[in-house]
């Protein structure tokens, strides 16, 4: 059972709130064939659209494409100021992807992340901060190919987890 | 073909047998180096019996379930997954899907699928949904 935190003990400071709608520095990635192969191999997906050039070129896609969650490997850049994460531990709550088109090997994809909402809940781990981010992926022709909306939960004190704030 | 799909149809199950090696491979491929996914001491300090599977790796399996089913002529339009419970390497993870809606919109055959990852105890740790488009017979035949 969780309830909303009351305003007088919120961890969502004015400084934290100022990050809502702030865009991260744009980062552009070349989508390389071997990075796609390595990702497909890591997730264990044998689909030849990711690795077999002849198969992919003769398919309706016309070229090698990347798996639908390959975007996880295209890390967003930093915010203009350091994000003041109040907690030490991190949980990934989930992702929602929207695809306009698939990413192809050879594309150049520009990644921008922004926080769209921050709210907190009380649970068995104490206060938990929920951060909703929308990450946009735009190709070399300026078309928005996909978005990923993430829910990240942070909680607890102590030494910060490695990787807190990366994804 | 869109016309071959009916509400209530189930996708072929995709069974995964994740191990620590795959978690390390995924950490490297996705650059997710949160230590709870590869350092047993960190996982135990957090109260877990083992390292835990990246939520995003579970999303990747659900993506494989759906894209494998639609084939190279279908298109994945939406993929959602919620990491409600933790899964561990060594356990069997079964990805399942069921058609919940079919409709034609602007000459495109759309199929809504309820998806999820089922652990070996039969619980759905990772519910989700997907929306795909499939070629219709008329379009595929060049009639429209």
Essential attributes:
heterodimer, A: 167 residues, mainly beta, Thiol Ester Dehydrase, Chain A, 6-stranded antiparallel sheet, 3 helices, 6 strands, B: 144 residues, alpha+beta, 5-stranded antiparallel sheet, 4 helices, 26% helix
CATH architecture of chain B: Roll
Q: Can you tell me the overall shape of chain A?
A: elongated
CATH class of the domain at 3-31 and 76-155 in chain A: Alpha Beta
CATH level 1 class label of chain B: Alpha Beta
The protein's oligomeric status is heterodimer
- Radius of gyration computed on alpha carbons of chain B: 18 Å
Identify the strand order in the major beta sheet of chain B: 1-3-4-5-2
| SS content category of chain B | alpha+beta
Largest interface: A-B, 39 and 39 residues
Count of individual beta strands of chain B? 5
The helix-and-strand class of chain A reads mainly beta
Low-confidence stretches of chain B: none
Q: Helical amount among residues of chain B, as a percent range?
A: 25-40%
The general outline of chain B is elongated
Can you give the mean pLDDT of chain A? Answer: 92
What integer is the average pLDDT of chain B?
Answer: 94
Secondary-structure element order of chain A, N to C: EHEHHEEEE
Per-chain topology:
The complex is a heterodimer of chains A (167) and B (144).
Chain A: E1 3-4, H1 14-17, E2 27-30, H2 33-43, H3 53-58, E3 89-99, E4 108-123, E5 126-138, E6 144-155
Antiparallel strand pairs in A: 1-4, 2-4, 3-6, 4-5, 5-6
Chain B: E1 14-16, H1 20-30, H2 40-45, H3 55-70, E2 75-82, E3 93-105, E4 108-118, E5 124-134, H4 137-140
Q: How would you describe this structure to a colleague?
A:
The complex is a heterodimer of chains A (167) and B (144). Chain A contains three helices and six strands. Chain A has 167 residues and is mostly beta strands. In chain A, strands 1, 2, 3, 4, 5 and 6 form a six-stranded antiparallel beta sheet that branches. In chain A, strand 4 and strand 5 form a beta hairpin. The two termini of chain A are 27 Å apart. Chain B has a single domain, classed as Roll (Thiol Ester Dehydrase, Chain A). The chains are: A mainly beta (167), B alpha+beta (144). The interface between A and B is large, with 39 and 39 residues. Strand 3 of chain A pairs antiparallel with strand 2 of chain B.
